[in-house]
Amino acid sequence: MKVPLKIEDVSQKLLDRLNATHDPIFVDVKLEEWAKPLDCINNVKKKIEKDGGKSILGWQIWQNNIADAEFHAVWEDLEGNLVDITPKEGIDIKQIIFVEDSNLKYEGKQIDNVRVNISGNPLVDDLILVSEKNFQFLNNGEKAEGHKLFLTLEEAGYLELLQCIKNDIISMLSKGQNKDNLCFCNSGRSYKDCCGRELGKILNEN
Prior knowledge:
This protein is α+β, with helices and mostly antiparallel strands.
């Protein structure tokens, strides 16, 4: 996923889904050496304890085949400037596109991304479904309350299956393929007549 080059490149369909209280803006990334990836809430909390300011909740925007809004917290300094202090896993960027949303509340539970297919390729819809199921499975019931995840062998197997399907769909998309191309399971049939047909059943198993 990539940060859109311009504000006007952000999917209007995604913005409509968010129905946020603010428009998208660029926010500079200025990392703190102690900040941890995927821990924006605690990173900003620690920054406030050190330097004052406050936490602003909203959505960080990524786009490729999917317009993807990721729940995110940035730091507002004493002059009212927004700064992203949280590192991104595997990438080094200087700015993000951020949509502040005063309606958001963080209550100690993970908040799923909001995803919109902007590719015109129906295979991306399946990728979104698998991603949403993966989140729901990992945050179902008591799992949503714990900081450490304990899974039964059956649950771990199901989670691995979801991840494999997700990776295989991403591989197909990277090759410019769609549902009419041969399925990744090497059955010799098209994806739509093979694993694509079985996807709904798999997603309803747990």
